[in-house]
Design a protein that fits this description.
alpha+beta, 60s Ribosomal Protein L30, Chain: A, two-stranded antiparallel ribbon, 4 helices, 6 strands, 38% helix
């Protein structure tokens, strides 16, 4: 329930920002089909998860357990789809110099990659990028915190 409220709140804030002309990107979501065995029959359940991992200011550490749970879902998806690879795209807020933010975005992507590798994902299936800071004109911390992130993209 808490996760659903967080997702709905995030979408609402992003829609509100979009109507104000902000350049913040929307949160990407994807549906993963997972097969499980129950009394000799396979049932398919859809796992909807936000594939964005948020970070604290000036940090590259994944600290929230819910993000680690999302990474377990990514690992499960990759285990079931051996032909798929992912790219981790690191971002920062507008505070700081370009070079520093680029390096911090890269550290964030590497941190997420290291967690996925520790979960058993082959490191050759994970690409990383950094886009440095997201262009946002806001000085509001509540808006800037949505720019400190890694977005997980599933490659086709």
């Amino acid at each position: 329930m808490k996760k659903e409220i967080r997702i709905i709140t995030t979408v609402f804030i992003l829609l509100l920002l979009n109507s104000c002309g902000s350049s913040i990107k929307t949160v990407n979501t994807t549906t993963i089909n997972s097969k499980s065995s129950d009394s000799d029959q396979e049932t398919e359940k859809d796992i909807l998860f936000a594939n964005t991992i948020y970070f604290d200011f000036n940090s590259s550490k994944v600290t929230k357990n819910e993000y680690r749970q999302n990474l377990i879902l990514v690992k499960r998806y990759l285990s079931e789809h051996k032909d798929k690879t992912i790219t981790l795209n690191g971002y920062c807020d507008k505070i700081g110099k370009d070079k520093y933010n680029f390096e911090l975005g890269l550290k964030r992507a590497k941190e997420v990659k290291n967690i996925l590798v520790s979960l058993g994902v082959d490191e050759n299936r994970i690409g990383i990028n950094s886009f440095g800071k997201v262009i946002s004109s806001s000085d509001n911390e509540e808006i800037r915190k949505f720019n400190r992130k890694v977005i997980i993209s599933i490659n086709k």
